[in-house]
């Protein structure tokens, strides 16, 4: 079939091009859709109470009859973590290499509605077909083993899909980036490679990203200086090579290792089963037995490197952990740099640890505590020169990173006009070797809030922020009796005059026969005038109804 008679190729980022997280990409050709990745995002300070964010699946679900499979590039949560929510809507076929398959299936166990769902494995050394798409995987390096890039053959040409990657010539586990295979795949099509979707998160970092293997030396240096102290290392729970280096350093100094946090324990259990984690006999001990050991001989590998309030390290810092107690002499090593929306919470955690008398090591004051799993400018230019595509699509970064990537590519002999900086939902359509922007999907924010999944709503989030910053005042009116209950607003015993004046404001509104909402507004105006604060005000009239702003 002549290329002009073949169906066009549409690529749509559902997530992963406007924000760093929620990676999900749709490839559509005729009656076939291929989905690459299905990740979660993490909430920021503007979404209190939200557990995670997920992509808007509407387009995928509306076209479920076309979807030939969901392919996962690697095991990080921002590339696979939304699968439980997608699969509860429709049980699509999901494809992953054995290690990633095991991680996914472990995470699905708590979702009983999915039953005994099984991910379909594929051999990373073999091509496979999904509808009109033929995928050929090749090995890349990242901060988790078995991360893959893909050459995807479509009716319009070959496309390279490289999510998170870097070139590491001496990785802790895995083998180096398979440059020969990538170069061979790039050189096969007579017409060249149509497009490259490339990780752009490191596009503002000069040079090449350093090897992961250099971290162990830093761990050993800190442990050598921490004799007689309890030691904590916090890192990303899926960063298996980092945890392996922590184990190696602990063994060198005769320490036992405690894995604290469900996500770390689950990941390492799977990694051990698949031969990725190596340890001397009995190095790793159970968290529930840690109190039986001399704390100065332990290294805790613990969750919470992004300052998550529900994670283990915060609970240890606050004295709320059921199994772990900070010793008088403790050391905490942050072996991860905060992601953009976690800087404030990480700094708050560091402050809390300092107040407890802990020695804290983090990247701003100690070199080589963290190495990115994402390539820098040198890595990106090397991949661009290996593939030499006609078009570039930066992914996995923010708008800032996409712009930096376009400038980088332009400065190395490629045409910036062929770099498509797509926002989430913005499609690009390829036909007869040419590209043009297509329609943009109207995507909504989807939050996971406890057991609820969907749009929490701007008004709910606004109320939560308002309560967090200004507190709440509840008013109960029964006949002539008015009772005020405050939470997080003022200390009642020291504010009797203020509260009595507030009651008078309410009595005046009642005498003017104002409805509940007007009473709430009047009281809110009074409290703001007197205190400069705007608490949520809720008025209840006995035998009446309750409203809130």
Automatic annotation (TrEMBL):
Protein origin, superkingdom: Bacteria
Domain Metallo-beta-lactamase residue range list: 21-197
Matching InterPro entries: Metallo-B-lactamas (IPR001279), RibonucZ/Hydroxyglut_hydro (IPR036866), RMMBL (IPR011108), RNase_J (IPR004613), RNase_J_2 (IPR042173), RNase_J_b_CASP (IPR055132), RNase_J_C (IPR041636)
Species per Swiss-Prot/TrEMBL record: candidate division WWE3 bacterium CG_4_9_14_0_2_um_filter_35_11
Keywords: Cytoplasm, Exonuclease, Hydrolase, Metal-binding, Nuclease, RNA-binding, Zinc
Name of this protein: Metallo-beta-lactamase domain-containing protein
Phosphoprotein as UniProt keyword: no
GO molecular function list: exonuclease activity; metal ion binding; RNA binding
């Amino acid at each position: 079939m002549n290329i002009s008679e073949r169906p066009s190729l549409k690529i749509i980022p559902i997530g992963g091009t406007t924000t760093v997280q929620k990676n999900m990409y749709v490839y559509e050709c005729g009656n076939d859709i291929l989905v690459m990745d299905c990740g979660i995002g993490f909430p920021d300070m503007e979404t209190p109470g939200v557990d995670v964010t997920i992509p808007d699946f509407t387009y995928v679900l509306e076209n479920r009859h076309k979807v030939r499979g969901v392919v996962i590039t690697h095991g990080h949560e921002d590339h696979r973590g939304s699968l439980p929510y997608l699969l509860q809507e429709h049980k699509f076929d999901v494809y992953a290499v054995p290690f990633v398959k095991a991680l996914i299936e472990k995470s699905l166990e708590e979702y009983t509605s999915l039953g005994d769902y099984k991910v379909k494995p594929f051999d990373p050394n073999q091509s496979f077909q999904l509808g009109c798409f033929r995928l050929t995987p090749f090995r890349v390096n990242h901060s988790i083993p078995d991360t893959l890039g893909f050459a995807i053959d479509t009716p319009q040409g070959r496309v390279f899909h490289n999510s998170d990657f870097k070139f590491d010539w001496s990785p802790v586990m895995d083998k180096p980036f398979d440059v020969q295979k990538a170069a061979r795949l790039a050189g096969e099509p007579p017409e060249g490679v149509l497009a490259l979707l490339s990780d752009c998160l490191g596009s503002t970092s000069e040079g090449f990203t350093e090897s992961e293997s250099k971290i162990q030396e830093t761990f050993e240096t800190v442990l050598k200086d921490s004799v007689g102290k309890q030691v904590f290392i916090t890192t990303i729970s899926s960063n298996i090579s980092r945890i392996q280096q922590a184990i190696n350093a602990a063994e060198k100094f005769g320490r036992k290792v405690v894995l604290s946090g469900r996500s770390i324990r689950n990941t390492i259990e799977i990694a051990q089963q698949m031969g990725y984690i190596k340890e001397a006999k009995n190095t790793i001990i159970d968290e529930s037995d840690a109190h039986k050991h001399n704390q100065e001989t332990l290294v805790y590998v613990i969750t919470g490197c992004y300052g998550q309030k529900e994670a283990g390290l915060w609970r240890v810092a606050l004295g709320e952990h059921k199994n772990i107690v900070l010793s008088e002499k403790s050391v905490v090593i942050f072996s991860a740099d905060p992601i953009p929306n976690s800087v404030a919470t990480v700094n708050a955690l560091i402050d809390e640890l300092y107040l407890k008398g802990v020695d804290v090591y983090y990247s701003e004051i100690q070199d080589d505590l963290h190495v990115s799993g994402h390539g820098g400018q040198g890595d990106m230019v090397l991949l661009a020169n290996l593939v030499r595509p006609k078009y570039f699509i930066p992914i996995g970064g923010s708008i800032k990173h996409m712009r930096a990537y376009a400038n980088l590519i332009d400065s190395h002999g490629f045409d910036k006009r062929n770099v498509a900086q797509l926002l989430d939902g913005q499609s690009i359509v390829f036909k007869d070797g040419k590209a043009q922007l297509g329609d943009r999907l109207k995507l909504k924010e989807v939050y996971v809030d406890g057991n609820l999944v969907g749009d929490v709503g701007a008004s709910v989030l606004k109320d939560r922020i308002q309560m967090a910053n200004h507190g709440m005042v509840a008013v109960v009116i029964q006949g002539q009796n008015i009772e005020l209950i405050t939470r997080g607003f003022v200390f009642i015993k020291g504010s009797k005059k203020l509260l009595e004046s507030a009651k008078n404001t309410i009595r005046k509104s009642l005498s003017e026969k104002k409805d509940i909402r007007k009473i709430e507004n009047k009281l809110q105006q009074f409290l703001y005038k007197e205190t400069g604060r705007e608490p949520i005000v809720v008025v209840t009239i006995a035998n009446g109804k309750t409203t809130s702003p």
